[in-house]
């Protein structure tokens, strides 16, 4: 996927029903807006926990499936599985007790895990080795492109003296 196509692609927001909270995979169980307390089912620990709604919204981390992660880092889903079996990237957290992956059970990556995978893939050289030993990797997105695609950054264009529009990233805090 070339840069223009990647930058114009829609934002991948992640799962709408599963999040990471304190490094555990959780989903909403019960929501009581009047009292400001909600219950979440901790999938990793297999138990129900209560927390404040504000704390949940502030501390939750987006969860991405393997397919969404592959789209974010411009690789095929099978390529990520191959890299997992080789031990180059960490396996995702499964939606079972203990976070183990199983057959026909979804597995998720957190935002920080997706960024780590991007860093690992950016350090892998593509093609024949170069004489100077540098890395050539043109398909891995930059950090700014990845954060924009994850919905955390804003992509704006600036016009140069030639009249060309060049992408300029302004990160949201």
Give a quick summary of the entry.
The chain has 173 residues and is of the alpha+beta class. It has 6 helices and 9 strands; from the N terminus they run αββββαβααββααββ.
- The N- to C-terminal Cα distance equals 28 Å
The profile of the biggest β sheet is: 7 strands, antiparallel
Point out poorly predicted stretches: none
Q: What is the number of beta strands?
A: 9
Beta-strand content estimate: 25-35%
Oligomer: single chain
Tally of domains: 1
- What form results from the Cα inertia axes? flat
The number of helices is: 6
Question: How would you classify the helix and strand content by structural class?
Answer: alpha+beta
Fraction of helical residues: 25-40%
Radius of gyration equals 19 Å
Mean pLDDT value = 89
Give the SSE string.
Answer: HEEEEHEHHEEHHEE
Widest sheet, order of strands: 4-3-2-1-5-7-6
List the helices and strands and how they pair.
Layout: H1 3-8, E1 18-21, E2 24-32, E3 37-42, E4 47-52, H2 53-59, E5 61-65, H3 66-72, H4 77-86, E6 93-94, E7 107-110, H5 111-122, H6 143-149, E8 153-159, E9 165-171
Antiparallel strand pairs: 1-2, 1-5, 2-3, 3-4, 5-7, 6-7, 8-9
How would you characterize the overall build of this protein?
The chain is an alpha+beta fold and 173 residues long. The chain has one domain. It contains six helices and nine strands. The protein has helices at 3-8, 53-59, 66-72, 77-86, 111-122, 143-149; strands spanning 18-21, 24-32, 37-42, 47-52, 61-65, 93-94, 107-110, 153-159, 165-171. It has a seven-stranded antiparallel β-sheet with strand order 4-3-2-1-5-7-6. Strand 2 (24-32) and strand 3 form a beta hairpin. The radius of gyration is 19 Å and the shape is flat. The two termini are 28 Å apart. The mean pLDDT is 89.
């Amino acid at each position: 996927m070339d840069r223009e196509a990647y930058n114009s692609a829609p934002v991948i927001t992640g799962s709408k029903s599963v999040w990471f909270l304190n490094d555990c995979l959780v989903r909403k169980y019960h929501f009581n807006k009047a009292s400001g307390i909600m219950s979440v089912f901790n999938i990793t620990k297999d138990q129900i926990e209560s927390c404040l709604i504000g704390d949940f919204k502030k501390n939750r981390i987006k969860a991405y499936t393997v397919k969404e992660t592959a789209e974010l880092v411009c690789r095929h889903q099978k390529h990520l599985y191959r890299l997992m079996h080789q031990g180059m990237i960490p396996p995702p957290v499964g939606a079972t007790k203990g976070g183990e992956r199983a057959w026909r059970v979804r597995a998720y990556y957190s935002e920080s895990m997706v960024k780590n995978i991007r860093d690992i893939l950016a350090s892998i050289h593509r093609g024949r080795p170069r004489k100077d030993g540098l890395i050539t990797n043109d398909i891995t997105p930059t950090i700014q492109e990845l954060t924009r695609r994850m919905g955390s950054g804003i992509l704006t264009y600036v016009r140069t003296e030639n009249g060309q529009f060049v992408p300029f990233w302004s990160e949201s805090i």
